[in-house]
Amino acid sequence: MPKMKTHSGMKKRVKRTGTGKLMTERAGKRHLLERKSSKLTRRLSGTEQLSKADTPRVKKMLGL
Questions:
Q1: Which domain range does residue 38 map to?
Q2: What pLDDT score was predicted for residue 1?
Q3: pTM of the prediction?
Q4: Which among 20, 3, 2, 23 has a CA at the least distance from the CA of 11?
Q5: Is residue 41 a part of any domain in this protein?
Q6: Which residues on adjacent β-strands are paired with residue 23?
Q7: Hey, is 52 helix, strand or coil?
Q8: Which helix (H) or strand (E) holds 24?
Q9: Phi first, then psi: what are they for 58, rounded to 5°?
Q10: How many domains does the chain have?
């Protein structure tokens, strides 16, 4: 049986930490920023841990 290929789109969106957690960018900071408060845009910066519900599906896409 051949090896599973890594999903190219997913490997660009998700990074793995040293302990194996999956980190991703927060949604909502790409456009329509004029109407969003500075407080909100600061909160949306940085990364967050992937939700527990999405983790198994993403791990399968990454071949983990």
A1: 8-25+32-62
A2: 84
A3: 0.79
A4: 23
A5: yes
A6: 15, 49
A7: coil
A8: strand 22-25
A9: -70, -40
A10: 1
Residue 46 tokens read as 């940085």
Strand partners, 58: none
Q: Is 28 helix (H, G, I), strand (E, B) or coil?
A: coil
Q: What counts of helices (H) and strands (E) characterise the chain?
A: 3, 3
Q: Return the half-sphere exposure (C-beta side, CA atoms, 13 A cut-off) of residue 7.
A: 12
Which two three-digit tokens encode residue 33?
A: 């920023």
As a whole number of angstroms, the distance between CA 56 and CA 49 comes to 13
Note the pLDDT tens digit of each residue in 7-64. 999 999 999 999 999 999 999 999 999 999 999 999 999 999 999 999 999 999 999 8
CB 22 within 8 A of CB 16: yes
Return the structure tokens found at 8.
């190219």
